[in-house]
User: Fold these one by one.
Assistant:
Number 1:
Amino acid sequence: MAGSRSKPGVSARTLTESSGEQAHRRRVTAAIGLAGFTSFSLMYGTQPVLPQMAEHFALSPAQASLSVSAGTFAMALALIPMSLISDRFGRAPLMRTGLLVAVVFSVLSGLMSDYDWLLWCRLGVGFAVATVPAAGLAHLGDELAPVRRAKAIGVYIAANAVGGMAGRIVAALVTQWLHWRAGILAQGLMGMLAVWLFWRLLPPARHFVPRRPAPARLLRNLRCLLADPVLPWLFVLPFLTMGAFVGVYNYVGFLLSGPAFGWGPAAVGSLFLIYAVGSASSTWAGRQVLTHGGQTLMMRMCAVMIGGLLITLWPHAVWVIAGLAMFTFGFFVIHARASAAIAERAGIRRGLASALYLSSYYLGGSVVGSSVGWPWGHGGWPSVVVALTACMAAAWGTLKLAGFRR
């Protein structure tokens, strides 16, 4: 039949769906998006209240930023082990358990009177939340046809942006009215509701096939991934881009709450509405993934991010906000496109490839995000901009060396 003709190499599953398959796809996409929303709302819970935490515990900005880096560091270390567990026991059970544990640690971190114990709780949040990126993208790969997958990944990353924005704004607003501890606790309550919805929404897996952990196979797959001419560069890229992204948002709160601007917690928290730009840009990138050259697009976005950083040097809040919007737009386009490229090139090894990509992503957020404390302490915001501009220039060079088009 004319209506059923397909392109060579494209299975019928990629082109036609029954009503049941459509409902399953929509529930899977929505549930994984909700998981992304929840994980990001919990992971960066302390970021909008870093100035208040620093004052409460008598910390330097760099020390306070460890409450963010602790979670991202734990996530980076846990991703590959969690991906192996998900291969063996299933993606859905792992994500359900992980999000529940993450909510518990998030609430506990708001109750700790000792900063060291608070850091341990944030480590627990990161370790538990790692179940979502370790299993979520692989679950989309299992359950959705390739032609549907890129858009679903765009939805997932957009949900990350919305979750990060919502969690930070809730914490900031409650901090303005009450206390920074109450802000973190409010995040935890929002997370409880989201986890309950996720448990109800996620349907049973239809295409998951369990695999036993095999160290020899893991090493073989790792060698295959690293032998690819493009993938190793895509594993380096997120270390630089995510590191710059976390660094900007860790320290812009200190800039805007300082004497030059004098913003309160609610005003600083409202800054994270810029994440809506990231949500829109990642969804746009998901739609454009099949029609735009990936290398050119991402290199242009590196330039956009650098331009945004430079604009924030202008000593006026409007320009700081505009620069952050540019920076955020570019970051989420790069992340969405790179995530899709990883899934495309890795094939059956996409679970391990996604884990390697995201380990680098969160390790960069941890290492670079806290390391920016040194230039902040020695030269303030202009030094932060110089350091992160160099970071993004290195990301541009990484993409140039990757040499891929799609």
Number 2:
Amino acid sequence: MAPVENDAAAKTFTPQKNKGSIYIYRNENFGGAIPMEVTINGKIVGHTAAKTYFHFNVDPGEYKIESHAENTSHLTLPVKASETYFIWQEVKMGVWKARSNLQQVDKTTGRAGVLESKLISASTPESEI
């Protein structure tokens, strides 16, 4: 988990100057014991669990986000400077283990999901995404 002060700062929902802000969150308890790997542009950023989220401030451009579980869910996100984006990692029942589905959601829904979750430290620095 990330330090509490990093979690609090991310929950101000203020993007850095000339950067886009991406939140990838998993606010469900269903399948909570199953970690789900998240990649951005092919780089592993870490694994989510129940009630967790990632936050990245990134340069404008196109980002390919993937969630790896029993399936692989793909989402391509065009990011603009000073904009905030919320991606919900929905958990679904699978045949052998949990499945996931990435969906971009509106700011009201996304903020609520992030506020009930805790920040995870990414294994890849946002400067390398």
Number 3:
Amino acid sequence: MKVAVVGAGAMGSLFGAMLAEAGNEVWLYDVWLEHVQAINENGLQIEREDETRTVKVKATIDLQQIRQAELVIIFVKASRTNSAAETAQVIAGSDGSVMTLQNGMGNADIIAEFIDPGQILAGTTSHGATLLGPGSIRHAGCGPTTIGAWSQNDAGLQRAGQLAEFFSRAGIETESVADVRSVVWNKLLINIGINAITALTHIKNGQILDLEITRELSRTAVMEAINVAQAGNI
């Protein structure tokens, strides 16, 4: 399958590399020229458990080099989803699938302003990665990936099932679900209970449970988010 990854940061580079290793034609698209050049000249360096492997994958800052792709995966920060959706629209055309595995809420809705909702898939992943420098990432942790069709019709569900199998064959353990919105909200609740608290207090993840005040702050934040979700019939 021909795959384009829009946003070749840590996670985009990781997924692109894993799909390339499985024998797919993969293009990493990013505006960071130094990163793109390093990947093309030396391959993508992936550090994992004190070992480093090199993956040959194509990278570009020029959409014309990619042309059409059967699958476009968006991995940019949420603030850049608009521009990424415009880019995906060009690459995917009217037939390709467009998938967002970004953190945060509202990304799929923004993408749907540019692309037919029937082409869109959303989801979450438990893989973790860190960008070390141009052409270099650390694969920090593995875990399941869950995806689903944003447009919950039979064609969308079939598309999600096929792509889940495709990812799993590439070594990315993936499940397709009928109600992906609940999955996205579940990931948000985790982020609220951990990421938001560490950002506010400047402590590490593992320290949240050590202090009564941060345990209570985390609990309160998650409960508020649960109430919002329930009000939205999630």
